[in-house]
Write a structure and sequence with these properties.
Number of domains: 1
Mean pLDDT: 89
Pfam family, one: FMN_red
Protein name: NADPH-dependent FMN reductase
Keywords: Flavoprotein, FMN, Oxidoreductase
Radius of gyration: 19 Å
Low-confidence stretches: none
Number of strands: 9
Distance between the termini: 41 Å
Largest sheet: 7 strands, mixed
Family: Belongs to the SsuE family.
Order of helices and strands: EHEHHEEHEHEEEEHH
Structural class: alpha/beta
CATH topology: Rossmann fold
GO molecular function, one term: FMN reductase [NAD(P)H] activity
Number of helices: 7
Length: 197
């Protein structure tokens, strides 16, 4: 199973990225391959000028095409998702998220921006034909503590519980996905089948 994680914050230090990293680590501990991208990984000119032929953009497109699911995290700025994330999502083909589950994660200064995910991110994911958009997790900045020299990043207990619950739903969605058929399987079964007329 492959999950692509997209960090939407343009900042070097980001609470939404902390949330995303903890989620990615949780999946990785359960045997899920997680490929991580952030808007900071891309040349700004490639994003602004929609350079689909950029090697880094091509690499992202290949991983998204192979992915079973996506984790997408964004800070909420002025009641909307980060503009850099929207610009990156605009580079994906129209049906890029077909047959994929998506777990949106967001952080903001207060609970007043809690619906930003529903009103600004989920419509974009739906336009990309995401098969299953999970409820998602919204956290306030006060619920996330950055890592310190002797301490890992920490989440408030209630937030950690909600995140794990959402990750369990994503993991269940991954388990429900049909697995690709081995092209050698059918000829082997036909050759070993007992035929009668």
């Amino acid at each position: 199973m492959l999950v692509v994680s997209l960090a939407g914050s343009p900042s070097q230090r980001s609470r939404s990225a902390v949330l995303l990293d903890i989620a990615g680590d949780w999946l990785h501990q359960r045997g899920v391959e997680v490929v991580r991208y952030g808007v900071r990984d891309f040349d700004a000119a490639d994003l602004l000028h929609a350079r689909f032929d950029s090697p880094r953009v091509q690499q992202l497109l290949e991983h998204v095409a192979r992915a079973d699911a996506l984790l997408i995290a964004t800070p909420v700025y002025k009641a909307s998702v980060a503009g850099a994330l929207k610009t990156l999502l605009d580079l994906l083909p129209e049906r890029a998220l077909a047959h994929k589950a998506v777990l949106p994660l967001a952080t903001g200064g207060s609970v007043a921006h809690m619906l930003a995910v529903d009103y600004s991110l989920k419509p974009v994911l739906a336009a990309l034909k995401a098969q299953e958009i999970l409820h998602g997790v919204y956290a306030t900045d006060a619920q996330i503590a950055y890592a310190e020299p002797q301490r890992p990043a920490r989440l408030a207990p209630e937030l950690h519980e909600r995140l794990v619950e959402s990750l369990q739903q994503l993991y269940a969605a991954l388990a429900r996905r049909p697995q690709p058929l081995n092209p050698q399987l059918l000829p082997e079964r036909l050759a070993s089948a007992r035929w009668s007329i």
